Amino acid sequence: MAAFSELVIEQGATFISTLNVEDVNGDAINLTSYTANSQMRKSYYSSSSNIIISTITGTSNGEITLGMSSANTANLTPGRYVYDTTITDTQGAVTRILEGIVDVSPSVTRS
Question: Are 69 and 75 spatial neighbours (Cβ–Cβ below 8 Å)?
Fold first, then answer.
């Protein structure tokens, strides 16, 4: 079962969040040869999505970094979204590891 976490993305600001993938015993999962993907949508049924860049930054300690550039967050409409993050092994098995709500807070300063 995927963990639940609420994220806050500030419109127009760089977004970075790091997560650590652990098994049921609390031990880090080795992510060597895995890929990670993450998307956010206005609702579960939305056909359009926004990509959250998901990079495995620590294979042996199960670390994944989620991020969006300030240019990408500037294009987000403020409000609530849903998201999830999956990992895929070399055999193509997909595991959803994280899911939740994203709150995009509006920006006052614009370039």
Answer: no
